[in-house]
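User: Sequence in, structure out. Go.
Assistant: Echoing your sequence, followed by the structure tokens.
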Amino acid sequence: MPDRGETWGLQWPPIIAGAFVASALSLIMISFATALGLGVASTAPTWRDASFALWLLSGIYLIFQALISFGCGGYFAGRVRIPYVSAAEDTETRDGLHGIASWALAVLIGAVLVALVAWASSRPASTTQPSSSSEPSVLSYELDHLFRAPRRPPNVDLTAERAEAARILMTSSSHNGVATDDRAYLIQQVTALTGLAAPDAERRVDTTIANARSAISRARAASIIVAFSAAAALLFGAVAAWAGAAAGGRHRDGVPISDWMVHSNRWSRRRTPVPRPMP
């Protein structure tokens, strides 16, 4: 039997262990979902053809993995916590606080990992040509289609032209849309860089502007879904961490069920109708 602590305070070894458990489970479940295609946003152009049901399913799965991972992390933190000497100790509350601390630490670990991955992804490889930072990835396909040419001299660098066209196309989602002079400038650029005739270049520019407006709109909708799903997942994860830590503390102390669960079971038995015998 481990020695009980004499003063109340947070026990960091269970909190750190629970946070690592939650982070590991969350990483495994998110990797599994990514392999199955449960992602709201992607750099590929085909993600914009995904249905609303797939977006909703991705958000629900994000909440589900938060419940599982943070609940397990909180359970681990509460299960290995050493209880205190005082007989008046509110064990369930203190276990829950350790679960919340484990949840908070796991969130910080996840934020650091996301920042490191984003930083590593933003660094261009030494063997590739660095891309312009002003070209949004959400419009990469539209820019490819805009400057597509059957014949072009080799080693032609269109980085500056693509970045400028991207900044113009970003205005397509504004209230006034692309200005007339910007549209005329894009037509001139496409005519000069692709060799298309003026009418063909005009049709291509108009199609690209419409596609860019749709892509930006869907990207905004996806970001809203991701933001709400992430916020809901974190909030539900905090509740799951508290409940998991409380459950772990009950199992640690040999109390399989809490008082409020007992009262809830009694109330459900009272509300359950008794089947009448058949005549």
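User: And one key feature?
Assistant: Helices lie at 12-36, 52-80, 91-122, 140-146, 159-170, 180-194, 198-252, 259-271.
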